[in-house]
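Researcher: Go.
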Amino acid sequence: MGVLALQGAFESHIRILNSLGIEAIAIRDPESLDSVSGLVIPGGESTAISMLLESNQLRKPLEERLSDGMPVFGTCAGMIMLSTEILDGREDQTPLAAIDITVKRNAFGRQIDSFESQLDIKGFTYPFPSIFIRAPIVESVGESVNVLAKLDDQIVLCGNETTLVASFHPELSNDLRIHELFVSMTI
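Model: Structure:
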């Protein structure tokens, strides 16, 4: 399993995947991307990640792997990157279109507005502790998208056959269930 290691809390994702018995490696170039069966795109700053994909020659290989059905999990900025449309992105910011969603960046406010919440997630027997930091929201979903959790009627977790996206940062929690859900998608 790979974790995009250009920006954000990639080390936390690697640590969690390793704790689940999954060999996880940092992805910084096209060669390492070729060696993995799934990918996590962590939070960070979506415009910076977009530019770093270009400067590291990763955009095209990543788009190819996604179109071939490689499983991918995006958190916060990763959700933004995997969307089909970014309502308030920069003009030069092109999403990867792995999941048919439209997102709005920083929808819950600035860094100072960060918060924690207990989310009821479809398929989970008890709430998931969720940390929101400058989090996006999903404004709309296509027919192929399964909504897994909402916060105040705002979609914050959803997926399709190969893609899982979260507005929040499950890697900052001690609860491994969302990473386990993603790993189950790769088997």
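Model: The chain has one domain: 2-186.
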